[in-house]
Amino acid sequence: MSITLDATVNKLLRKVRITENSAIVFKDIVACDGHDDEAILRIVTHAHQDHLCGLRESIRKTPLIGMTEATYDILKALDYDIPENKTLILDYGEEVKIKDVIVSLHKAKHIIGAAQVLVIDEEGQRLVYTGDFKLPSTPILESDLLVIEATYGNPSHVRPFKYEVEDLFADLVKSSLAKGPVYVFGYHGKIQEAMEILRSKGIDAPFIAPRKVYRVTKAAVKHGLQVKEVFYYRSFEADEIIKSGWYVFFAHLSAARTYSNRSAVNIVLSGWEFTEPLRQINEKTYLVALSDHADFEDLLEYVKRSRPKVVITDASREGSAYMLAREIRRKLSIPAIALP
Question: Is the Cβ–Cβ distance between 108 and 115 less than 8 Å?
Answer without folding.
Answer: yes
